[in-house]
Design a protein that fits this description.
The protein is an alpha+beta fold. 17% of the residues lie in helices and 33% in strands. The two termini are 47 Å apart.
Length: 730
């Protein structure tokens, strides 16, 4: 899209915030009329809108000009702690080891591979040693992101796939930030691009086993992925067939390959129930086969595989199991009514354990689960699976109380699985876990720990679990991060971070940028509020739909805990969250503005009711299972209207607020923070500045490239640190 030239610098100094004109628009539902004065800002191609957004950025630049040195300092701290020339641990796929490399001074990764040797031993699965700055013999470059990004305002890869013979490489590129991709196919034998080019695709790429067909996704006009299409190489894209189309606007569609790569799995679902359809590559003419229809209202994931020559389906499901369980089912059973099917229990339901998913290798089942808030992995041999002879689950043991262990991708035939381990102060480690068979195996083989430069020592920091009491008595887990030498004298600054939606958990994880706040004496609290998944499925359900307000009051309770903890000065507390966490920021700013010195709301979903009331807007209909459907349900409408931030701005003194957004964001449109900021300024009785930072070439994740990402994080952190007087390193 070509925009009018409205980006010229202002000719006079910016002394006052831009004031958008008021164009009253009435929105009436269930007998309630809301007058929206700023809905006209949704007109993205209106030159007046573009001019207004640029004026907002000019005002933000002026108001935060004195933070420039702090931003530069934080950016340099991030940069100086990062080993800029680095490589990922190679992962084996067929006859190759695939990895990516980063080069100092370059913003994007370079995708590479080298041939794998095979001698029939465990050594076949030992990745080659690759070292920063050292050439790798036989290295082939698949894609250099820096070359692809040259001259482009934005660059992001939305997926890649390689044919099994290793000859063709398909990749998807977004140059706008709107999460619509152009797919190209490269012949790795010649380096030439095939003439096949697919425009406006969504996430998702897979080749058929013979390499002649490419599967990809398309989204509808509201950015909802709804079509799985097949492209036969060498044929016109206009002739691509639709393998599957989902017409229910409240359902999300995606696909993947089964672990053994014998099936294409098309998944359709929402947060409450789902449906899986399988395409058997050995009999593609039979088309897609439905396992459990959505009418059964079961939320499940399926993994087809052969066990002793019999086609089996490993099901992770919530049938009579709110936290989910795992069952093993003969594929033939799915031809019967569900009530007549025989499901063998593999992992029973447990109120204290949330089953996240399961997959298989040629010899083992690997389960991802959450217990005591912590994500972890357990493995069980396939021998006797689902019978009385089933072996005991084995779990890799780590030496920290708060950590995250997750699957990092593994080949089906491999005797090891790849694990990624991290904690709040342990940089990511990549392990290969030797799958236990009999008395052998079970070892954790450390392949790499991400280096952190600049004299970083994990012992200089502390991560502790604390609990805040919500108004209804519920105990809310907190992760409290600080320097080990910080005095508990009630004088320090603090920040509370939260999300609390879609059953997403804020798991322990290392972050270089966060060290810049901690080193300035700030206490960083992650509030694991209801609506997330940290405490199981009930924790999520107690923070969605007509329970959504629990998310907000939990966050305020976390803030109160911090204020009373003895660690901080209650007048020096800030809050931060993004996307649905940005809605959280808007809600708590309305609920308890006096408790915060500053709020940073990143790509904030602050006009939720307007968005969800219009199913034509991007992703709106998909939100009904999370928030409720205010179009058809007056109770949901009333409930949402009571908390949606834009409609509940009131005449109080708001703290300093920064709304951070992107012009091309398709998930939370820029218009939401643009309207919110105008309403805040018009109604607030205080004098604290309220600004909107907008990236005109970015998407939901902001500007592209690692250096721009560091600058964005430095901007957010500098705004917070400046507001709470934590600008100097201790």
């Amino acid at each position: 899209m070509t925009l009018p030239d409205a980006s010229a610098p202002l000719s006079t100094p910016v002394s006052a915030p831009p004031v958008a004109k008021k164009v009253p628009v009435e929105r009436t539902h269930h007998g309630d009329t809301f007058v929206d004065n700023y809905e006209w800002l949704r007109e993205k191609e209106n030159p007046e809108v573009v001019a207004h957004l640029n004026a907002e950025q000019a005002y933000t630049d002026a108001v935060t000009a004195d933070q420039e040195q702090l931003r530069t300092d934080i950016f340099n701290e991030i940069k100086n702690r990062t080993q800029e020339t680095d490589l990922s641990v190679p992962s084996r796929k067929d006859g190759w080891w695939y990895y990516s490399r980063m080069v100092e001074g370059q913003a994007y990764g370079i995708q590479c591979r080298v041939r794998a040797e095979s001698n029939g031993t465990l050594d076949d699965w030992t990745p080659p040693l690759v070292e920063p700055g050292v050439p790798v013999p036989g290295e082939e470059i698949l894609l250099d992101g820096n070359v692809e990004a040259e001259g482009q305002p934005f660059f992001s890869i939305g997926g890649a796939a390689v044919t099994r013979d290793g000859n063709l490489y398909a990749y998807a590129v977004d140059n706008a930030g709107d999460e619509l991709f152009t797919i190209r196919i490269k012949d790795l034998r010649t380096g030439e691009l095939l003439p096949d080019v697919i425009e406006n695709a969504f996430y998702g790429l897979s080749f058929s086993p013979d390499g002649n067909t490419l599967f990809y996704m398309l989204a509808d006009d509201s950015w909802r992925p709804h079509q799985v299409k097949t492209h036969i190489l060498g044929t016109p894209v206009s002739e691509d067939a639709i393998l599957y189309q989902e017409d229910d606007v409240a359902m999300w569609t995606g696909f993947d390959l089964s672990a053994d790569r014998r099936h294409l799995m098309v998944s359709i679902g929402c947060s409450e129930f789902s449906e899986t359809r399988l395409l058997d590559f050995a009999a593609p003419e039979k088309g897609l086969n439905v396992l459990i229809p959505r009418s059964a209202e079961i939320l499940y994931d399926a993994e087809p595989f052969l066990l002793d020559g019999v086609e089996k389906i490993l099901l992770t499901h919530d049938r009579d199991a709110v936290n989910s369980m795992i069952s093993l089912v003969d594929a033939a059973e799915f031809s019967k009514p569900i009530a007549e099917q025989q499901w063998a229990t593999v992992v029973a339901h447990d109120d204290s354990v949330r089953i996240n998913g399961a997959t298989v290798t040629a010899t083992h089942m690997a389960v991802s689960l959450r217990k005591d808030t912590i994500e972890r992995i357990q493995v069980t041999t396939l021998e006797g699976l689902g019978t009385a002879e089933q072996g005991a689950a084995v779990e890799p043991v780590f030496d920290e109380e708060l950590y995250t262990a997750s699957m990092g991708g593994s080949e089906f035939e491999s005797p090891v699985i790849r694990l990624v381990y991290t904690s709040d102060f342990t940089p990511p480690r990549v392990y290969d876990y030797v799958l236990p068979l009999g008395d052998a195996g079970g070892e954790l083989l450390l392949r790499k720990e991400t280096p952190v430069l600049g004299g970083y020592r994990a012992a200089d920091y502390v991560a502790e679990r604390e609990w805040a009491k919500a108004p209804d008595g519920t105990l809310v887990p907190l992760s409290v991060l600080r320097r080990a030498d910080l005095p508990r004298d009630g004088s320090n600054a603090g920040v509370v971070y939260g999300y609390g939606s879609y059953e997403v958990s804020m798991d322990p994880g290392f972050g270089v940028p966060r060290l810049s706040l901690l080193d300035r004496g700030m206490v960083f609290v992650i509030a694991h509020v209801r609506g997330g998944g940290e405490m199981g499925r009930h924790w999520y359900e107690d923070g969605k739909k007509l329970n959504k307000k629990n998310t907000f009051t939990d966050f305020v309770a976390a803030t109160d805990w911090l204020a009373e903890s003895g660690w901080v000065d209650p007048a020096r507390i800030a809050a931060m969250g993004g996307s649905a966490g940005g809605l959280l920021m808007g809600a708590v700013a309305n609920l308890a503005p006096e408790k915060y010195a500053a709020v940073v709301a990143q790509v904030p979903f602050v006009d939720a009711l307007t968005t969800i009331l219009d199913p034509e807007l991007p992703l709106s209909a998909l939100e009904w299972e999370e928030w409720g459907n205010p179009i058809t349900d007056p109770e949901v409408y009333k409930y949402m209207k009571e908390y949606t931030p834009y409609e509940n701005v009131r005449a109080v003194a708001y703290p300093k607020i920064a709304a951070v957004t992107s012009f091309n964001d398709t998930r939370v449109l820029y218009v939401e923070p643009a309207k919110w900021v105008q309403e805040l300024r018009a109604v607030s009785t205080g004098s604290a500045p309220i600004v909107m930072k907008i990236e005109m070439d970015g998407g939901h994740g902001g500007a592209s490239g690692r250096y721009e990402g560091w600058k964005t994080r430095a901007w957010d952190y500098a705004f917070l640190a400046d507001a709470v007087g934590a600008t100097e390193l201790r």
